[in-house]
Amino acid sequence: MNDVESEKRDFIRQRRTGMIAIATAAPVALLLWLAIACLMPPLAGMDGLGGRMLFTLKCCCLAVLFCLVTGVEAVAHERLSSPAFDPLSGFETRRLRVNQRYLQNTVEQILVFAAGLFGLAAYCADGFAMRSVLATTIVWMLARVAFWIGYHRSASMRGLGAPGMALSMIVLLYVAGRIGYEVGGSIGAAVPVVAFPVVAFVAIEVFLFRATRALPSADAP
Question: Using CA atoms, how far apart are residues 182 and 91, in angstroms rounded to an integer?
Fold first, then answer.
């Protein structure tokens, strides 16, 4: 077996493991979200927009503290206890690389999470509906932890945190649909929900895939 075939088999194996991790974590995340959003008592003081926005800000603060700041601390601790203290030295352990990637990914994901969470809170009418904001926050935070721990086990196991990313996107699509409904009714609601996955995502992915695919070498016969 040559190196190309070996790499292909390894990729297929890792992808299969990652898909299993996602399939395992998704129902757990869904059940937890439903349990919090449907079973816990309604939140008090959520009838006004100001109260809902303040509670959402508190949720974002907790997410930043437990998911982002912990990543910053992990990278800083690794640098303080190894030759990686000098970032320009090129010294990196696998643990440091994983922590750095977790930190970068969390910075990216927390922007999507926060935008969707504030939008969701804006459309919640009362303390009953605001339970969905708390449920989204808790599930997202636990998914970040699962992503981080899984990543340290293997690249495939970071799929355990995929439901958190999916949840943020679903919430943001819901908010976009509500905005569209306010502008153009049912048709307006369908435009962002359909346009994003079908037009924006698929079209852009196809274009980038074709535009960035490897071209034949000029020296090739």
Answer: 53
Rg of the chain on CA atoms, in Å: 21
**What does the alpha-carbon distance between residue 176 and residue 77 come to, in Å, rounded to a whole number?**
40
Q: Which two tokens stand for residue 130?
A: 């605001």
| 46-89 pLDDT tens trace | 999 999 999 999 999 999 999 999 999 999 998 998 888 888 88
Q: With residue 143 as reference, give the H or E element that holds it.
A: helix 131-153
Find tokens 């016969």 and name the residue.
Answer: 221
47, 126 Cβ separation under 8 angstroms? yes
Buried/exposed 125-155: b ≥16 CB within 10 Å, e otherwise: eebebbbbbbbbbbbbbbbbbbbbebbeeee
Provide the whole-model pTM.
0.89
